[in-house]
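#structure-requests
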Amino acid sequence: PVWVVLHRYVGLFIAGFLFVAALTGSILAFDNELNEWLNPPPSVMTAGRVPLSPLELREWAQAFAPQAYINNVPLQVKPDVAYLVTLQPPEEPTTGELVELPFNRLWLDPYSGAKVAHESVPDSYWPLTRHNLIPFIVALHYKLALPGEIGVWLFGIAALLWTVDCFIGVYLTFPIRARRASEQERTVVRSPVTWWARWKPAWLVQWPVRSTYRLNIDLHRAGGLWPWVLLLVLAWSSVGFNLYEQVYLPVMQSMFGLTDPMADAPSLPTPQPEPGLSWRKAHRLAQQRMAEQAQAHGFSLLGEETLQYDPARSVFYYVVRTDRDLSAESGGTVLILNAVSGDMIDLSLPSGQNLGMTLHSWLFALHMATVWGIPYKILLALTGIVIAVLCVTGLYLWWKKRRSRFVATGRRLAQS
């Protein structure tokens, strides 16, 4: 009875959050495809031209927007597609407020550096347009699109309760244990069938349907059992997204030895808007350091992804694809470089480095649908629909039982 009550009231608290997260998550399983369809990048004519290097394109972009910061440089130049540069506004020295830029996204011809297009995407979600539709769905997914951190905390608490409730819920589907007979009989009533055979009905939906109430029980129970492992993955990884430092990291460190590369590059008292190294030199040093690490740790480099500068820590993040990555879509191997001295601070490998990092990489890759291509994206989208059904059936069962208790209480009062 204690676990039933806990499951009931935890479910009531998290149902609304999970319903929103589930339906938006079903959409976000295809977020890259949807975003490319809604906002296709400008195309350019190749005509046999040789593309400029990404760092040369960054310099061209900086010339078009000298007042802006460009802290993220994609290291892949795609043929026939304009090169996208994201601009970040500087702070006003006196007030500390961000300076409004005339545009914050810039597309360049990767073969000449000429400006192809530019636009200013607002931080707010209203008015809702094709440009901010996917970011709005993302914000709904993890914080109800609420301002500040309140939505992040609410969803994080809901995710933590969901993680615990995954274990409570599966326990409540177990068959009731055989009852012991009275001491006078000194015997034990043994079930004629095995425990597994008695658990089997919990995985099934009875057909034909006897009643709406029975159908909701079967859907709620079986719907929580079949995708249970994936539900637990989504629940705990959601804690990682919203309560990383507060809950996720301490638990993963203590249980699985997860290492946090950020711990070796703490935040500075005052952010450094500009790196001490030039971008070209930082790139050369990062390539050298990564090649040395590949030889030392026995992994193969497959391609470059991005070079990012973090002003809060004064470090460069050099992201590449290797044979240690889980996803074929994007790289997750990261080398952290001191932006002043050029020394390597840390290396993060998605797999094979330690058990904690491997589990962490799998949890986040499964949540973000970056593994196994379209089939897994479809599975994840369907799982979102199943979670929504669990929320609806759970609320229906609670309402029916609550109404039955009220009716029974009314009858007792009438009889008395």
